[in-house]
Amino acid sequence: MSESKNHPASTEVGHAHAGGEVVHADRFPDPGVPEHKPRLTDTDPKAAKRAERIVTLLFTISALGTIATLVAYFAVRPDGTTEGVRLSTLLLGVSMAVSLLGIGIAAVHWAKSLMSNHEYVDDRHTTATSAEAREVAVIALQQGVEDSGIARRGVLKGAAFGAIALFPLTVAVPLISSVGDDWDVSKFRHTLWRKGVRLATDPDGRPLKAADLTIGSVAHIQPDVPLEERETHHWITEKAKAIVLLVRLNPDDIRSEQREGASYEGIVAYSKVCTHVGCPVALYEQQTHHLLCPCHQSTFDIADGAKVVFGPAKRPLPQLPITVDDEGYLVAEDDFSEPIGPSYWERLK
């Protein structure tokens, strides 16, 4: 049986017969690139001009979004209340979204309506690029610039460069202006916990009695403060440092504590701020008494002083020493046994 010769513009189809022999059927020609169908903007100058105006408008909207971001950043500063923080965050988020989306949508519309949409075929070649191929690549890049029409559309070019140049200000200005912010790390050495401060459930703020907890019970805890104080931005910041996980164990299961007498009848309280990078540690496994950080799987044994048993964390969770007051409510005896959270400069250990 004669065998057909290879041809660069054809494809070979084989069929297997009984016995495993492959018989080559007739080759079919390469269908090639489909016929190019021009867009409306390719044939109608008015449509092309209209598309150019739309793209220019989108870039202009992006630039206005950047300006609105800067205005919102300086004019609507958080005033210390929850509502003020929400308003500032909302205005910054919306204006930055308008700025970035304007650039993105304009770029997509430009590519689909104004740039060349002809199909091109590039043959495969060896990995090493010859000097001739590099020259061809440079020519192709120049052709791409020409196809984009940016050179002959001055208004569009100005709008595009203006929007792209302005957008980084939405990130750069807040970063630069924050250089003078408070960098006092000593604030992490202390939290809202003081002697006599009651332990309250998070988030409803209900004071908790030791009698409310049975062995195996778990509660998310925050300091008990007046309701009006919980509406301030200062409270939100301080609460983030003071969050606690409270667990009642069988007293016989407690093998060690960070500080002698820090627990009360098997009830232990540990900081929820992971000592790795500060994620909230709140996944408790009752059988093993292990506390898991969901971010990087650091695992702490709360029956053994919250020591690290797995993961990247290097230090135990700080323990909050607790007791009960005259009414049976759980209260703190002092602040945490050591600074909460990840390592930072000036920390002794």
Protein model, in words:
- Helices cover 34% and strands 14% of the residues.
- It is of the alpha+beta class.
- A four-stranded antiparallel sheet has the order 5-6-7-8. The chain has a four-stranded antiparallel sheet with strand order 9-10-11-12, with no helix packed on it. Strands 1-4 form a two-stranded antiparallel sheet.
- It is elongated and about 90 Å long.
- The protein starts with 9 loop residues before the first strand and ends in a 17-residue tail after the last strand.
- 23% of the residues are buried.
- Residues 1-13 have low confidence and may be disordered.
Itemize the secondary structure elements and their pairings.
Layout: E1 10-11, E2 14-16, E3 22-24, E4 28-29, H1 40-43, H2 45-75, H3 82-113, H4 131-148, H5 154-166, H6 169-177, E5 199-201, E6 218-223, H7 233-242, E7 244-248, E8 267-271, E9 283-285, E10 290-292, E11 299-301, E12 307-310, E13 322-324, E14 330-332
Antiparallel strand pairs: 1-4, 2-3, 5-6, 6-7, 7-8, 9-10, 10-11, 11-12, 13-14
Helix pairs in contact: 2-3, 2-5, 2-6
Q: Low-confidence parts lasting 5 or more residues at pLDDT below 50?
A: 1-13
**How would you classify the helix and strand content by structural class?**
alpha+beta
How much of the sequence is in beta strands? 5-15%
Number of helices: 7
How many domains, in number, for the residues?
A: 2
Largest sheet: 4 strands, antiparallel
Report the top-level CATH class of the largest domain.
Answer: Mainly Beta
The topology string of helices and strands comes to: EEEEHHHHHHEEHEEEEEEEE
Estimate the mean pLDDT confidence: 82
Quote the distance from N terminus to C terminus. 83 Å
- The number of strands is 14
